[in-house]
Amino acid sequence: MKKLLAILIGVAASCALAQTASAAGLKPVHAFCAKTDCADGAQPWAPPVTDGKGNYYGVTAQGGAKGKGTIYRMTLANGHWSFTRLYSFCTDKNCTDGAEPRGTLVVDTDGNLYGTAELGGDIGNGTIFKFQPSGAGGTFKRLYSFCAKANCADSAIAQDLSLVYQGQSSGLPYDGTSPFYGETSGGGATNHGVVFAFTPNAAQTKWTFKTLYSFCPKANCLDGAVPYTTVAIDGAGNLFGTTAAGGKYNFGTVYKLAPDGAGWTHTVLHHFCAQKTSTCPDGTSPIAAPVLDGAGNLYGTTFNGGSTTFGTVYKLVPNGDAYKLTTLHTFCNDTTGGVCADGSNPWSGPIFDGQGRLFGTTYFGGDTGQGTLYRLAGPSLKSFARMVSFDGTTASGAAPLAGLMLDASGAFYGSTVIGAPNNAGVFYKFTP
After folding, report:
1. What mean pLDDT do residues 84-109 have?
2. pTM above the 0.70 mark?
3. Neighbour tally for 172: CB within 10 Å
C-alpha cells in the first residue's frame, strides 16, 4: 500500500495545473519548502492540532535539517500567522528518534505533544515520541521503538498512525495518564498488524506497550488485515477501526474491539464487497478510522469501490453484531467535463461540524484531478456539495491526503501533500 501511495503522489504531482481553484472560503496559510532544501519541511500528510491558544501543531513527512520530516507550529496572533520549525527528525544516529512522521499530533493539558514516526527507531519500524515545545524549539523524547520484540510480535510500521485517547472526540486535551490507542499495519502474531494500548505510569517515567489484538489469526484473514491509520473510541471504551484488506471478500472490514474484563473481544461489523459484484457498491479498501455520532452510528470512507470504483462515504447503524451499511455518497458520480468533479479516492475520513454536517477531503478528483473538499448535509446526510476543488496553485495546493481539523471558531484546518509554489504542500484554513 505504501508503494502504491508513493506512485499516486507522483501522479498527482505530475498533473498539478496552475488554474484557479473553486476555493471560496479557503485561505492558504503556509506553503512548505519555502526555505532552502525544504528546511521548514515538506509533504504534511496529516491535519494539525491546536492547543486552543492560537497555536496549531503538525508534522511533515519530508524536509527539515535532515530531510526526514519536522514538527512545526503555526501561530495566529493579532490576525497574523507565523511559522516555526520546532524539530527536525533523524537528529539521532541511524534515525533512532524516528523519521517521516505522518500522523496527527496529540496535545496534553500542559501543551506537550505526542506522535508517531513511520520509520526510524531501533530497527527502522517507527517510533512513538513526546515533544515539549519551548520557544523556537523544545525537548524531544522517544517513548517507544516499534518492533521491540522478536519477529515484531508486538508491532511494526506505524504508517499514518495518529494516537487516540478516550475523550479526544469531545475536544478534551490528553490528561497525561490515560492509555493511548492505535494500530500498526505490520507485526503481530502473523505480521498482518495489531491494535495496541500505550500507557504511562503516574509520573510518566515508564510507558507500557500492550498488544490488544493481532490480525489474521485464522486462514484467509476473515477478521481483517493491514489496519492503516488509527482507531476511534467511544464513551464506554470500545475501539472501532478499519482494515484495508482481509474479511470474507478480502476487500477490508470495519471492526469493533470491546473490553471484556479479561481482555478484548473482536467483532467484524462489516465485510466490504459483500455484494460480490465487480464494482462493490458498498466500497473497498477502507483506510481511515470511522467517526462516531452521539447515537453510536459510524461514518467513514472507502478509498476504492462503490458503483464507480472511486470510493464512497458510508454510514453504519448498529444492527446486532453486524451493523447495517448505507452508502451516503459514491464518488465520481459527477463527471462534468469528463472528470470526477465531486472528487475521488478519499484517503481520510470525514468529521462533523457543530451543525451535524460531515466535511472531508478526497485525494483525487475535482476540476483538475488534484482533490476536493466536500460537505454532506441534510436530515440523512446525503446532500452532497463540493466546497473546494484543489488545483496545485498557491491558492490551494494539491492532493489533500490529510483530513480536516475543526477548531472552536468553526473553522477547518488541513494540509495538502503537494502543490503551491514549491510543490511541497500547504497548510490551509477553510471557513464554510
Report:
1. 96
2. yes
3. 12
* pLDDT reported for residue 209: 97
pLDDT tens-digit map of 198-211 = 999 999 999 999 99
Pairing outcome for strands 106-107 and 80-88: unpaired
Report the pLDDT averaged over residues 216-243: 95
User: For strand 253-259 and strand 264-271, is the pairing parallel, antiparallel, or unpaired?
Assistant: antiparallel
Round to whole Å and give the CA distance between 134 and 280. Answer: 50
Give me 100's grid cell. 517521516
Cell of 284: 473497498
Q: Is the dihedral of CA 86, 91, 417, 253 positive or negative?
A: negative
Which residue in the block uniquely carries the three cell numbers 506553503?
31
Q: Which three-class secondary structure string do you get for the chain?
A: CHHHHHHHHHHHHHHCCCCCCCCCCEEEEEECCCCHHHCCCECCCCCCEECCCCEEEEEECEECCCCECEEEEEEEECCEEEEEEEEECCCCHHHCCCECCCCCCEEECCCCEEEEECECCCCCCCEEEEEEEECCEEEEEEEEECCCCHHHCCCECCCCCCCECCCHHHCCCECCCCCEEEEECECCCCCCCEEEEEEECCCCCCEEEEEEEECCCCHHHCCCECCCCCCEECCCCCEEEEECECCCCCCCEEEEEEECCCCEEEEEEEECCCCCCCCCCCCECCCCCCEECCCCCEEEEECEECCCCECEEEEEECECECCEEEEEEECCCCCHHHCCCCCECCCCCCEECCCCCEEEEECECCCCCCCEEEEEECCCCCEEEEEEECCCCCCCCECCCCCCEECCCCCEEEECCECCCCCCCEEEEECC
d(CA 57, CA 97): 19
Report the candidate in 215, 220, 304, 301 with the shortest Cα–Cα distance to residue 264.
Answer: 215
Once rounded to an integer, what is the mean pLDDT over residues 167-181? Answer: 94
Residue type, 387: M
Write down the pLDDT at residue 162: 95
The pLDDT tens digits of the residues spanning 366-424 come to 999 999 999 999 999 999 999 999 988 766 799 999 899 999 999 999 999 999 888 99
**pLDDT value of residue 319:** 85
Average pLDDT rounded to a whole number, residues 278-299: 94
**How does pLDDT run across 331-346, given as a tens digit for each residue?**
999 888 889 999 999 9
